Structure formats: C-alpha cells, structure tokens
C-alpha cells in the first residue's frame, strides 16, 4: 500500500525518563536545579474543574511555571521549576488515584536558561527573559473539552489504545517494509525533523488527522455499525477480507497524540496499531545517536523551540508572528522581521497584521513583556488604599 507523503526538513530532540513523582524527590540538588517536565494521563475525570484552583495556587506558591490542561478525559501539562518544587506539584496531582501513573518526560534546563530564570525576582517588573523556558511568575491551568484536541468525543484512550513500543525496539519495527510509519504531528513540526521513511500527513492541526486517515486508506463506510459491548457503545469498522489495513506505527513528541490516534485507528478497524512509548523525546534519550533513525531536530512547545540528541539546545528560533520554527537561513531572507514575519507566514499576513506585530515587538523591546511593565499585575487592596489617601492629601493641599 502506498501512502502519500509530504517533503520535510530535518532536526533532533531529547527528554528523560518516564518516572514517578517519588523519583523526582529522591534526586540530588532539589533546591536549585531547574527542570522542565511534560506529563499527561488519560483518565475518567468528570470533576476535573475542582482541581484547577488548588493546583494553580500550589504552582504559584512553589513558583512552578508553565501550562496545564484539565479535561473530562484527563490531564496534560508542561511545567518548569526546581526539582523539589516540580516533584511536589506532581505528587499533588497523583494524590488523585485516577491520575496516578502520570506519563512524564523530564528535560534539563541549560545553565544559561537557568540564570535567566533565577535572575528575575518578585520585585522585578519584567517577565523572565525571552530565552527562558517559561515565565517564572506565570502558570496557566486551563479547563478544556479534551487534553489533546482530536474533535471526536467517541474516541476514548481510556478504554483502549495501541501497543506501546519501547524506544530500543522501535528501530526494528519501523525498518520492517510491511510497517507504515506515520508522524502524527503538525507540518511545522515535521518540517524540522522526523524518523527516516516516515509518512508526513501535512496536517496543520491534530483535528485534521481523522480526515487524512479516511482519505489515505479509503475506509469502508457501508459496513460500519454500532456494537454494544460491556454496557458501552463503540463504533467498529468491518474491513473486506481482501483489503485488510496495514500494520501502523505512529509517533509524536511525547506520546500523547499518538496514543489518542492509536485509539482512533483501532476504532476504525485497524488491527495492528503501535505507538512509540514516551515519544520522540524518550527515543532520543535512550537510543545512542549512531544507532538512531531520527533525522533533524525535534520541535518542543516552550521557548527552547527545538532540541537535538541528548536534549541539547537546538538551532531553531521561533517566529513570534506565526509561532513556527525558523532556521538561521530563514532569518537571512527578506521576509524575516523579528517578532513580525518569517518566510513561512510573510505572504499570509496583511499589512495591518504586520503593523500590530511591530507595535507588540516595540513593547517587548522596551519592557521585556508585551503590554508594558505592569501587565498582569493587579493592585492589592492596600495599594488601592494608599492611592486614595494620596489623592485626598493632594486635594487638601
């Protein structure tokens, strides 16, 4: 079976172990060394909204920054802080039995990034520098319908997923000519790196993946039927015997998207569905570079932008006009304007959009933060009282 592909560039990346919250607490230098941890777990979590307030407050108290998504299907996040603080946040999350066994990938923070991060204190009017992994004083805990958006509520990784493949066993699987290897990430990610021989669906969002599968594999629709099983209704596709689906191996950055995609393919009637445990990052941590089938750099969703083998800092920067990775060569082109446009978005932006971006960039150049030095800082009640007293005094004088 021939599956169409997209041409991409090249790149690399790396994380660290999928471990328990207790593991983080047992490491050395817990009070000063920064770390970035990405984590997720699919779970039946209808009361997810109740966790938002205490989780956000704990992160703020411990100065753990980043972003966390809570949804009825579980939790997904990426946070930055000291080893001790991050360990406490993860332990707090896993206090809920439904969230025990978080899948985690730990990435180191370079000494330069750590210096930038620790260089901003509570008395500073500015956010962490633009090269730091996250703003030290900012954490987002959002409520959403899905922890990773596929747009298909009936797809449930809680009920079933494909077979996990250890990084050390991945090369043998994807080298088999009978295996179709699919990169389920977006085109701006695959452009800078992917596994050798992998199919690139060229999607701009994970929600596009189901329609790409339908188009590529010409899935039968007439034979689809609802089956009742164990009190739940699931959609199952019956394939004609002569047109059995291929063996599929999928991967993504940290494992969450390919895990959900595997559940979708099983629902569609695919029988042999595999996905890389821990994603690209775990693979690049465990598999030595001479043995690696990864080509290029790996895009990551924080200000490092990309990482190489061994989780070393990558060479790509971020276009703040479109949030896509740009190379040194991209920044030498006429379309590149810092904070405004790059070769990947120049033609799609109107002059009005470019002017707004230039205004934002001027704010950042002046203050180190969009919106000025007081952005996001609400005056306290004491500040309000002082201001009123000051105004009264000025009036009397």
Account of the 3D structure:
- Residues 175-292 form the Rhodanese domain.
- InterPro entries: Rhodanese-like_dom (IPR001763), Rhodanese-like_dom_sf (IPR036873), TrhO (IPR020936), TRHO_N (IPR040503).
- This protein is α/β, with parallel strands linked by helices and 397 residues long.
- The protein is built from 11 helices and 17 strands.
- The chain has helices at residues 21-25, 49-62, 83-93, 111-118, 167-175, 187-190, 209-217, 256-267, 279-286, 351-367, 381-396; strands spanning 34-42, 65-71, 74-82, 103-108, 139-143, 163-165, 179-183, 193-195, 225-229, 232-236, 247-251, 273-276, 294-296, 298-299, 306-307, 317-319, 324-326.
- It has a 5-stranded mixed β-sheet. Strands 6-12-11-7 form a 4-stranded parallel β-sheet. The protein has a two-stranded antiparallel sheet with strand order 8-13.
- A hairpin with a 2-residue loop joins strand 9 (225-229) and strand 10 (232-236).
- The N and C termini lie far apart (86 Å).
- Residues 7-30, 120-132, 222-242, 375-379 and 390-397 have low confidence and may be disordered.
What is shown here, in short?
This is Rhodanese domain-containing protein. This protein is of the alpha/beta class and 397 residues long.
Report on the biggest sheet.
5 strands, mixed
Question: What is the rounded distance between the termini?
Answer: 86 Å
Radius of gyration computed on alpha carbons: 23 Å
Please give the share of residues in helix: 25-40%
Overall pLDDT level: 80
Note the total helix count: 11
Lateral arrangement of strands in the main beta sheet:
4-1-3-2-5
Order of helices and strands: HEHEEHEHEEHEHEHEEEHEHEEEEEHH
Shape: globular
Percent in strands: 15-25%
Category from helices, strands and their pairing = alpha/beta
Question: Which runs of at least 5 residues are low in confidence (pLDDT < 50)?
Answer: 7-30, 120-132, 222-242, 375-379, 390-397
From the structure provided, what is the oligomeric state, counting identical versus distinct chains? single chain
DSSP strand count: 17
Organism: Linum trigynum
Biased composition (Polar residues): 388-397
Pfam family, one: Rhodanese
Region (Disordered): 108-129, 353-397
